[in-house]
Amino acid sequence: MTGAGAARILQIAERLGALQFGEFRLTSGKTSAYYFDGRLLTLDPEGSYRVAGALMPLVTERRADAVAGPAVAAVPMVAAVALMSYTQGRPVKALIVRDEAKKHGTGKLIEGAALPGDRVVVMDDTCSAGGSLLHAIDSVEAAGCAVVKVVCILDRRMGGSDAIRARGYDFFALLEADEDGRIAPTLGALREAETC
Asked: What's the whole-model pTM score?
């Protein structure tokens, strides 16, 4: 159901105004003629439900023990997937990766119960240059976990997904953008829909 889910997610994102056109500076420092605000989508009740529903089959297929993502954008995603996994009788933990370790308390970099040997799916709302996802991957692996898949809602096709794949990770996106900002379900998401 991933492909059908991806199409519905795109509809919800458009309805919510999560896709805007203009000139925007991205976290990577690059500029873009469009901006996709995944938080508008994942903080919406239906959007959160649909994103979790589209990602759950990938998490289950990889026999993940946890899902992890960078703060702040991935927080609602990992929480929604963890909640849905519990309701489906296949609970996975949610982990949040900070930009840097806390300067107080226990000095955690990862919030949540990451255990060495855990199989982890790393996720984020978008992938541009890939810096946030690569930081999350490195942090999870430094905690002794194994990254078994990397996913995002939107691959902006700005080099990040290629860099992640070049490091040997299995990368998957529900949606992808072309250089003009046209967003559509990925071929991978459509193939997933055909096999369901």
From this structure: 0.91
Residue that the structure tokens 């919510």 belong to:
16
- Can you point out the beta strands (E) in 101-157? 110-111, 119-127, 146-155
Positive or negative: CA dihedral 9, 13, 14, 19? negative
Cα–Cα distance for residue pair 44/187, rounded to 1 Å: 25
Tens of pLDDT along 139-159? 999 999 999 999 999 999 999
Looking up residue 156, the CATH number of its domain turns out to be: 3.40.50.2020
Q: Which residues contact 46 (CB under 8 A, 6 or more apart)?
A: 12
Cα 141 from chain centroid (whole Å): 17
Q: Which domain holds residue 72?
A: 2-195
Please tell me the total count of domains within the chain.
1
Contact of 2 with 175, CB cutoff 8 Å = no
Q: For residue 82, which of 98, 101, 69, 99 has the smallest C-alpha distance?
A: 69
Please, how many CA atoms are within 13 Å of residue 159, restricted to the half-sphere of its CB? 4
pLDDT reported for residue 134: 98
**What amino acid occupies position 81?**
V
